[in-house]
From TrEMBL:
Protein name as annotated: valine--tRNA ligase
InterPro entries: Anticodon_Ia_Val, M/V/L/I-tRNA-synth_anticd-bd, tRNAsynth_Ia_anticodon-bd, Valyl-tRNA_ligase
Catalytic activity reported: tRNA(Val) + L-valine + ATP = L-valyl-tRNA(Val) + AMP + diphosphate
EC class (word): ligase
Organism: marine sediment metagenome
Length: 259
């Protein structure tokens, strides 16, 4: 293992992380209706973002387990932190909020996945933050139905095991492209100091990913403050824009520069 330098900045980062977890748990609990029932998650019926977060969770559990067995506790903690703060809080929860507000009822509710990922992640994090995770886990447990199988304390709950069947490379590829599009638009907004109240047009050229990404135009609009968002085939020959370094993407923002 490696020594960890304890600094004021690290303590402040831990405080911010605990606050992030607290707010995430409060949000998930707020989505649980009184008549909520435990439902088996059927992955083949889930939208891309659900399959993506479940895949990321499984990969994180697998990696963290290996690291802890090799006594690489610092790196294991970092990967849990990155997953919870990044994939779960910054991306999945924000997209789930859009789904919960949407009038579209053809998609399954994100609540079962929110509950599953949060509860599993708290057990994964427990060795590092025993008191905070116990408090949050008990709070979550109190809002779940009586038939939810749980121990009296997270301390004696089963440690998570990776679900290899949940690993979904295609869902990961699609979500990585969506996240990259949103980041590209945000970066341009910051570069040109576009006011947060100002919406900018976005034209997206996503190649073979276009059909899979198009249904997420509402999420891109909301999270990137871009409207309208239109999708095109990259074969149209448009070359001026903000190309992706990792995917076959090109983001064009015709009115990004505001005088």
């Amino acid at each position: 293992g490696n020594d960890i330098k304890l600094t004021a900045e690290r303590l402040e980062g831990g405080r911010n992380f605990a606050n992030k977890l607290w707010n995430a748990t409060r949000f998930v609990v707020s989505t649980i209706d009184p008549d909520y029932t435990n439902m088996k998650i059927k992955r083949d019926l889930l939208p891309v973002e659900d399959r993506w977060i479940l895949s990321c969770l499984s990969r994180t559990i697998s990696s963290v387990t290996t690291l802890m067995e090799d006594f690489q506790f610092g790196e294991a903690q970092r990967q849990i932190y990155d997953f919870l703060w990044g994939e779960f809080c910054d991306w999945y929860i924000e997209i789930a909020k859009i789904r919960l507000r949407s009038a579209q009822k053809q998609l399954p509710s994100p609540v079962p996945v929110l509950v599953h990922v949060l509860e599993t992640s708290l057990r994964l994090l427990h060795p590092y933050m025993p008191f905070v995770t116990e408090e949050l886990w008990q709070n979550l447990k109190s809002h779940l139905p009586p038939d939810w199988q749980a121990t009296e304390s997270i301390m004696v709950a089963t440690y998570p095991e990776a679900d290899k069947a949940a690993v979904d490379p295609q869902a990961e590829r699609i979500m990585e492209a969506i996240i990259e599009i949103i980041r590209s638009i945000r970066n341009v907004r910051a570069q040109y100091q576009v006011e947060s109240s100002h919406w900018i047009e976005a034209q997206i050229y996503a190649g073979d990913l276009t059909p899979a990404i198009t249904p997420y135009s509402q999420a891109i609009q909301t999270l990137a403050r871009a409207r309208p968002v239109t999708f095109h085939d990259i074969q149209q020959g448009i070359s001026e824009g903000f190309p992706s370094e990792e995917n076959d993407l090109l983001v064009v923002l015709p009115n990004a520069i505001v005088v």
